[in-house]
Queue: 4 jobs
Job 1
Amino acid sequence: MTEIAIFAAGCFWGVEQTFREAKGVSETEVGYTGGHADNPTYEQVCRKGTGHAEAVRVTYDPALTSYDDLLDIFWNCHNPTQVNRQGPDVGDQYRTAIFTVSDAQQDAAQASRDKLAASGRFDLPIATIIEPLGKWWKAEEYHQQYFEKRGGGACHIPG
């Protein structure tokens, strides 16, 4: 049986690629969530009028990887202290967020964020928002597995 996790960490192309390479992940899908408009398009989200974040829906096998493992990947694939930006991408659609699908995920995400904040790894406060998943909107097909289709890339993802 698989489970779902939803992460926003900047441009969804590189975040998706990072999770696609993770052990135990069977499927990824990029999309939009956390906003107020129905059926948003990429152009609408980029104009910053919908309130949505670019996010990645990760389907994983908990027998092969844990939610905590996915949280570690999330914390390491972006700068969680940046507000409404990652690398060269600026706007609320690039915010750092974890969208939870259960109380257990909410608790685990909060504990993980608290542990990272207390670790001293970052000089600035952790800006990551943790909230229950609202409506999920799948992004346009040309965004799905973007780098895989185009032969690589990484956006803002650290090497």
Job 2
Amino acid sequence: MRMFLYDVFPPELVKVGLEAENKDEVFEEMVDQFCQAEKKSDLREEILAALRAREMKMSTGIQKGIAIPHGRTNAVDRVYGALGISRRGIDYDALDRNPVHLLFMILAPEKDAEKYLRILKRLAQLMDNPQFYTDLMAQKDAPGACGVIKKYENIIIAAD
């Protein structure tokens, strides 16, 4: 069965116009959106703990303007993705010291390492194209952002 990023990052888990100013605030903002959309508010603290534990190992602010906060926790029963877009940028303690504008949050159960790694690999492929970042930043709403993910993913799939 093929895995598609546009299924992992559905519109209800995309937030254009993040309000957070720093890493901890953005984790809370994105986890709150996830919990509300998925009706899992009882899992909020467990999910935040998983993200923070992973982040303590090394910043997930991986390249200019992009972070991929991720965590593995049995609080979730499958792999989920959430996308946040910040116009003004977030003080993220990124490896390159620059503010982060795109955040791809990934949550996965402990047992689902293979799918989790495939999602990270596919995201890395999309990020290899600088136009992907530019097009995502230009989006005004969640459906538009999801359309960009689908467009660039289809380019990768066609090339495989």
Job 3
Amino acid sequence: MKNYVVLYNPLANNGRAEQSARKLEAVLTDGEVRFVDIAALGSFYDFFVSCDDDCIVILTGGDGTLHHFVNDTRGLKIKQKIYYYGAGSGNDFLNDLGKERGAEPFDIGEYIKDLPVVRVNGKDIIFINNVGFGLDGYVCETGNRERKDKKKPINYTSIALRGLLREFSPRRATVTVDGVTKKYERVWLAPTTNGRYFGGGMKIAPDQDRLASDGKMTFIVVHDLSRARIIPIFPEIFKGTHVRHTKYIEVVKCDEVTVRFDASCAMQIDGESISDVIEYTAYSRNAVKKRKA
């Protein structure tokens, strides 16, 4: 008989993650199932030491849950199999793998090792999907703030439109990609991605492969666009056809990228926002290995 431990994030899916996690009782009928609240867990080290090596751990939540898990378990030698059950409000990881929220739990061992890292405000942070600087950072920061204030689901598309129409001001940026520096005017977005999707379903990097042998990330910069010009292009990001606008959108595969804005703004890392950022540097998984060598 198998031994399952379901870790759930009580804050995921607007506070409904436990309810979603409990649905697994009807699915995991070939073994014993134990549910554990991540918020009350304490140390991941103590948790994994207490689990049998053949235990199957099922992480339940969304992109934010994955983000915190890979960072909070950094450096741990985990012997147990780690599965994932998508039950969050943001599911870019699932979209990238062609799966939907509520799909059968699956092994994510190959997806959570050797991940890229972003350095911001003197701190190295692992990211599983993407980091973003500009409009997407504004959207995440605003959405997270409104969720706390209103205690209800947030419409991120509506927030993005508010930013495009009036609330977000594009920046000047200096960008260095694998040692080559360029300057850009009126930068709206400057994300670096490990997967194809960001922002809850936008196909920002249609050719990115998180398991590619070269280990490279994709950097995208959307620049030199007035509000009037970016509004008709913006919806194309949902399908990934925005990349055809090569005059305004550059897409580059890379191992290291540094983005510096002329004025601070919010950035997002796997949907988690950080306020008042001027600069970030992202390193691909191969670049991370070289830094450690």
Job 4
Amino acid sequence: MSFAEAFQFFLWAMLATLVVGGVAPLLGGHLLLRRTGLYGLVLPQFASAGVALGYAVLPWWIAVFGLGGRTLDEALADPHAASNVLLGFAALATAVGLAVQAAFARARATESARAVGAFAVAGAATLLLSQLSPMGAEYVDSLLRGEVLAVGVHEFEVLAAGGLVAVLLLLRFQNALLLCGFDPDTARVQGLSLVRHEWVLLGALGLVVATGTLIVGPMVLFSLLVLPPLGARSLSRSQRGFFRWSVALGLASAVAGLVVSLRLDQPLGPAVALAAAALSTAAWALSRRQRALP
């Protein structure tokens, strides 16, 4: 397939991937600096369980609340019809994931233990709920792998709006978020509310995770939340440089993943994940070489 044909048929899917490539690394950078980077792995899995739950209860939802007058067959034939319902379930499951992590933190479990336990539970729930989907587990699995080529203008608008709100929150509270994460005592002396700013970051994260998981899939999302900031950390010499490198590597990973996916007809999720891993590894190797030079 030529790139002209790709732009014609998959424009919104490509734009959605680029939005995630630019926004997710910014959030992932804040998580990494706070030593909570594994949230980027756990929360998309919870959102995936929410999407699977949304599909599982879709017949009940249509029977009780309705879906714009559509029958179940009509809703299943139109992948965009139930997107708002599924987004609601993804957001709810993301909130549950945040609550679970907070509960584990109060129990003084380590971050890795919290992440492993929560990921296992959310992964099992996703697999079990996907079996109950009226469209079959195969459809849900393809969505969660990152088969995003059916993304339309409505889904892109939802994702872009969520990403814009998240970026505006990060820009508005960036200095306060960094101070609260690095030096809570000084933040208190400066009159900053740790709880308030924690909710600002988690709210932005939850918004991007819920919309991104539904529209581009959890694999695309967590690879761009986690891997570009890891590569950026080895290249940067300042906080501004860290976030700029994170976004640059995220966008490069998204572009490379799209090229591989479209050229080789492969799922987008694994293509983006491998591209992000390769670029982050290259960044680490480059920084090592520069440091080794006299």
